[in-house]
Amino acid sequence: TVVPVPSAPGISLVKTGALSTDGSSITYTFTLRNTGNVTLSNLVLNDAKLGMSNEPVPGTLVPGGSTTFTRTYTLTQADINAGSVTNTANTTGQTPGGGTVTDTSGTTGDNNTPTVVPVPSAPGITLVKAGVVSTDGITITYTFTIRNTGNVALSNLTLTDAKLGMVDEAIPGSLAPGGSTTFTRTYTLTSADINTGSVTNTATVTGQTPDGRRTTDVSGTREDNDTPTLTPVPALELLIPNVITPNGDGMNDRFVIKGLQRYPGSGIYIYNRWGNMVYQNKNYDNTWDGNGLNEGTYYYILKLNTPQGEKVHKGWIELLR
Question: Using CA of residue 193, residue 196, residue 199, residue 200, what is the dihedral sign?
């Protein structure tokens, strides 16, 4: 008596993923189960994302039997930017009669739902701002350093600095995690700044994450603070020479008053020994070279335009050719 026993081969593949504590990789766990009534052999697994192509799975599976193993996947920046990793695998086994049975992975044994592992984003940005006064004491050069301190790329960077007239000024390019960019802007000192003796300033930077969120930072003196940038403005002594030699050698050819640039609108009036005015400039720019005059001693009146009002300096200047 022959009693046929129909075979009903079946297999299931369940795939789960767990993000590492440092957020750099995913450990995938694969569980293959023989859901049929015949033994399965020559088991293979395919997972393109993990680089697995017909990878043999050791051993055989008796009906109801299962096997579990893991593989590690290293996250790419694109994965982190996307905020999750979606993945699917498939398995194939061979029946005793030479047939095959296959299954696409799922989150449980009764579905083929792709495995989705969330990858939390932690956007971050810092802005460090430093200022240096020019040697002539007229301007401050501010250096801005923007750094991406998070784990996702940042784009659409903008900078706001009211004192420098910058309102959501676009910063070219994007910043990968750990990346930075540096640029400078120049600020012209005012009489009030000079009178105060320092300039205090703050800026704000904003960047956009791949999912459209904004991250921002107020500038500081270091990455770990938001301390306003204070740039001392040293007092510059007004140095008025008493000799010029306008002979065309490029040295001491003009009556140059050092520090005068800080006092725009200052006038100079130059007289000969008989009290006749030979030169005047109500907004002196350090250009008088005694053109057309003989050698000798001349006398000047400098009306210095200061924040406290006009201050008068008088003296003499020797013209030698």
Answer: negative
